[in-house]
């Protein structure tokens, strides 16, 4: 059987991470082709529901990339993303999803190399975690 | 709801840039079968004239209402293809770019996998464009006044260019006088022009220019608004001296009992607490430095106020907050030298005859502490052997800065040459790693230093500098001969790395513009947009953006000024219409979105009981959309439905 190839949805902000991914391309740096980027203007446009939707629809991993703290094109959108994603990670377990399958990273427009490293590392990590098998009827009962 | 659309997909080969890794025919053939796609084709260079014609004619022939071009990054040709789409009669926002070059063909090698990924990317963009609505740019009026931050040569040049173009400029400088570091220099390479002689006429022009409002001893505190419409708060610190009344008689300084190191001479001389930084200072007035004055209360001292005949001194002067409205901002905050204390091995601070480059400039300067005589600070003797050490803190990624400070090779050659002109029987040695003398007349200048002035260049690093018997001993190595070198020098000059000006990081936060890994302000594109910051309406000039010499600084400052003038040449700016909007039917008025907006674009309409968006203020980040619990808030052409359909397409058939 062929090795498991994870499916990764990558939300990248227009100003930093998508530009960083472009720089990786311009510099001809190679990384694993398991992710597809959805460009949004700011990482804060990513609604936790988008992430859950992606997992529901078969994503094994979801990546969100924003500008470094203090560098957000929209002043502080990345801080909003940070708070939302931290909270979402706490809830993912309740849906039967390993929080490690969701990653938020700051990748600047100058960090093509970082984008490549993070993508490879995340892809390898998801490959190790294996295919996401969502439990029937949602996640395990939470807490009680 | 997804419209019934007629989408055309145009797959670019980009020569072999895309076609080498991605099977473009297969991408087009697969997309042709996608729902709503009525035409999918490929072409060798879509951005070429025939490529654009192909798009325009296809739109007309096939009656397309939306277009996806699968090609390079949207940062490159989005505007090209949107214009082409518009020429065919479609709204430009009906054209979207699928980035299959930078984010696919250039980063993958396996052709089958890259092709599959390119298909996914293109399909996801097709899903997006099929839900796009036509948009019109939002017009915003421009305030045709500019703010220039920093009064060194770059700020002066930018301010003069904009002012001469007919627009008002507010020039803000932190220190008591404009002039920056250039006014401290003795001569400039490679012509040996006297630095003050060429700069002071420009400084005077600034002070007399009817379009320039000069605010010295002032700092930018707060900026709000957006391109064309910034609101700026500037803190004007009190100088306690009325510049219009001060006659520069200097009696106040004569009686002032406080002596502190003189910043202008980099501590080689002292100054009083009430002082003028240098004779040609602009504005020409004394400044009372309240950090060092015994208390600004007549009981504590009051000597200066007693002797000031014209009554220019006023202890009751208070900080002022000045509010200005401007349309564009030029950031020209320059540099400071790398902290010499970090280079303990070179003895700076411990050995009085170890100087940095700027201090040596002051020693050489006709207006300097020694009136242009090169004398050792320790005993005022003429140094007969001087060692110049290049790359102090530059090109050292392990311990200091990885970058090259760019100007040190040239100014060291100048220093060695000028030293020889002052002390013809002296000997100058230069320790260097490489000599970087790119620039008009620069290489010839270095040659002149070695050939005519007998400067000895030693290729290698210095390991230690220490004091012994009144000499400064330099241990180094000449890597060309492989020999250890010991020089018993009288003086050592360190070519310190240049760093972004202190305060640049705080200013970056105030302006919300980004800095690079070394703290220099980031340009919008390293090659093609070198004078623009990533924030629209804010421009960069001089060393604030990266190390550069005076001619380059002046060019960039004029470049930034011409960008400002180009912006001011129209009466309105257009604003990207991909802004937030509210479905008033759904909005419950919970107001959760309001604090999410950094631009105060969301306001609660008391009458309607819903939140509304000021689309001129909205920058289109989408933070409020993600916060809306009901889905009433949406971003135009970045709706939840669009994003979710893109996710679906990417994961299609994989579940």
Helix content of chain B: 25-40%
Helix fraction of chain A, binned, reads: 25-40%
C-alpha Rg of chain A, in Å?
15 Å
**Beta-strand content bin of chain A:** 15-25%
Cross-sheet strand order for the largest sheet of chain A: 2-1-3-4
- How many H/I helices of chain B? 16
Largest sheet of chain B: 5 strands, parallel
Q: Strand portion of chain B, in percent? A: 25-35%
* SSE-based structural type of chain B: alpha/beta
How are the SSEs ordered, and which strands pair?
The complex is a heterodimer of chains A (144) and B (655).
Chain A: E1 8-13, H1 17-26, E2 35-40, H2 48-56, E3 61-66, H3 77-92, E4 102-106, H4 112-129
Helix pairs in contact in A: 1-4
Chain B: E1 7-12, H1 24-32, E2 37-43, H2 49-61, E3 66-71, H3 74-87, E4 95-99, H4 101-105, H5 111-129, E5 138-141, E6 145-149, H6 153-164, E7 168-172, E8 187-188, E9 193-194, H7 195-208, E10 212-215, E11 218-226, E12 229-236, H8 251-255, E13 259-261, E14 270-272, E15 274-275, E16 287-288, H9 303-307, E17 320-326, E18 328-331, E19 335-337, E20 354-356, H10 357-364, E21 385-392, H11 408-422, E22 427-432, H12 442-451, E23 456-459, E24 462-468, E25 471-478, E26 483-489, E27 491-496, E28 498-500, H13 504-511, E29 523-525, E30 529-533, E31 538-540, H14 550-568, E32 572-575, E33 580-582, E34 602-605, E35 610-613, H15 623-627, E36 633-635, H16 640-651
Parallel strand pairs in B: 1-2, 1-3, 3-4, 6-7, 6-18, 7-10, 18-31, 20-27, 21-22, 21-27, 22-23
Antiparallel strand pairs in B: 5-32, 8-9, 11-12, 12-17, 13-14, 15-16, 19-28, 24-25, 25-26, 29-30, 33-36, 34-35
Helix pairs in contact in B: 1-5, 2-3, 5-16, 6-7, 6-14, 10-11, 11-12
């Amino acid at each position: 059987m062929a090795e498991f190839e994870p499916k990764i949805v990558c939300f990248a902000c227009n100003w930093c991470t998508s530009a960083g991914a472009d720089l990786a391309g311009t510099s001809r740096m190679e990384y694993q082709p398991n992710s597809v980027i959805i460009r949004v203007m700011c990482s804060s446009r990513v609604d936790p529901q988008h992430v859950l939707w992606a997992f529901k629809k078969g994503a094994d991993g979801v990546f969100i990339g924003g500008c470094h703290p203090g560098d957000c094109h929209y002043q502080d959108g990345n801080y909003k993303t940070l708070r939302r994603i931290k909270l979402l990670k706490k809830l993912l377990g309740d849906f039967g999803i390993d929080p490690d399958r969701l990653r938020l990273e700051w990748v600047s427009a100058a960090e093509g190399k970082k984008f490549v490293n993070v993508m490879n590392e995340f892809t390898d990590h998801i490959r190790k975690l294996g295919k996401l098998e969502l439990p029937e009827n949602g996640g395990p009962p939470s807490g009680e | 709801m997804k419209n019934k659309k007629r989408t055309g997909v145009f797959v670019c080969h980009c020569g072999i840039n895309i076609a080498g890794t991605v099977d473009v025919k297969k991408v087009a053939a697969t997309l042709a079968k996608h729902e709503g796609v009525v035409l999918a084709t490929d072409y060798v260079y879509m951005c070429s004239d025939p490529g654009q014609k192909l798009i325009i004619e296809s739109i007309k022939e096939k009656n397309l209402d939306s277009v996806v071009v699968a090609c390079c990054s949207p940062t490159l040709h989005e505007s090209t293809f949107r214009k082409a789409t518009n020429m065919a009669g479609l709204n430009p926002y009906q054209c979207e770019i699928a980035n299959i070059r930078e984010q696919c063909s250039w980063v993958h090698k396996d052709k089958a996998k890259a092709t599959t990924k390119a298909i996914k990317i293109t399909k996801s963009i097709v899903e997006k464009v099929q839900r796009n609505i036509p948009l019109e740019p939002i017009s915003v009026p421009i305030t045709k006044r500019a703010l220039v931050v920093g009064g060194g040569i770059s700020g002066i040049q930018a301010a003069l260019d904009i002012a001469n173009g007919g627009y008002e400029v507010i020039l803000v400088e932190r220190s008591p006088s404009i002039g920056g570091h250039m006014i401290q220099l003795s001569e400039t390479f490679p012509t040996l022009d006297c630095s003050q002689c060429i700069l002071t006429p420009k400084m005077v022009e600034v002070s007399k220019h009817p379009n320039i409002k000069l605010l010295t001893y002032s700092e930018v505190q707060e900026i709000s608004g957006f391109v064309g419409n910034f609101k700026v708060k500037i803190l004007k610190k009190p100088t306690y001296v009325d510049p219009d009344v001060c006659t520069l008689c200097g009696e106040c300084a004569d009686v002032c009992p406080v002596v502190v190191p003189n910043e202008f001479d980099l501590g080689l001389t002292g100054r009083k607490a009430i002082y003028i930084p240098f004779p040609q200072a602009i504005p020409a007035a004394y400044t009372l430095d309240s950090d060092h004055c015994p208390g600004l209360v007549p009981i504590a001292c009051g000597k200066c106020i007693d002797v000031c005949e014209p009554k220019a001194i006023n202890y009751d002067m208070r900080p002022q907050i000045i509010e200005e409205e401007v349309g564009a901002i030029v950031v020209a905050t320059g540099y400071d030298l790398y902290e010499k204390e970090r280079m303990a091995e070179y003895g700076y601070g411990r050995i009085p005859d170890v100087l940095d480059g700027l201090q040596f400039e002051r020693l050489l300067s006709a207006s300097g502490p020694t009136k242009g005589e090169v004398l050792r600070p320790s005993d005022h003797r003429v140094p007969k052997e001087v060692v110049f050490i290049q790359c102090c803190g530059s090109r050292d990624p392990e311990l200091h800065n990885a970058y090259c400070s760019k100007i040190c090779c040239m100014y060291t050659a100048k220093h060695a040459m000028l030293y020889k002109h002052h002390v013809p029987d002296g000997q100058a040695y230069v320790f260097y790693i490489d000599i970087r003398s790119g620039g008009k007349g620069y290489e010839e200048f270095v040659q002149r230093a070695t050939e005519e002035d007998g400067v000895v260049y030693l290729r290698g690093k210095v390991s230690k500098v220490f004091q012994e018997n009144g000499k400064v001993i330099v241990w180094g190595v000449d890597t060309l001969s492989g020999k250890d070198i010991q020089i018993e020098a009288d003086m050592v000059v360190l070519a310190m790395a240049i760093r972004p000006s202190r305060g640049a990081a705080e200013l970056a936060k105030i302006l919300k513009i980004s800095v690079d890994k070394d703290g220099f302000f980031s340009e919008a594109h390293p090659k093609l947009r070198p004078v623009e910051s990533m924030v629209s309406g804010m421009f960069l000039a001089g060393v604030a953006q990266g190390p550069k010499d005076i001619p380059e600084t002046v060019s960039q400052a004029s470049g930034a000024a011409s960008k400002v003038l180009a912006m001011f040449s129209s009466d309105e700016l257009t604003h990207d219409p991909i802004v937030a909007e509210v479905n008033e039917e759904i909005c419950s008025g919970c107001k959760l979105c309001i604090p999410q907006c950094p631009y105060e674009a969301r306001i609660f309409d008391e009458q309607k009981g819903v939140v509304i968006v000021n689309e001129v203020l909205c920058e289109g980040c989408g933070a409020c959309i993600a916060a809306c619990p009901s889905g009433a808030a949406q971003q135009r052409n970045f709706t939840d439905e669009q994003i979710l359909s893109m996710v679906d397409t990417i994961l299609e058939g994989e579940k």
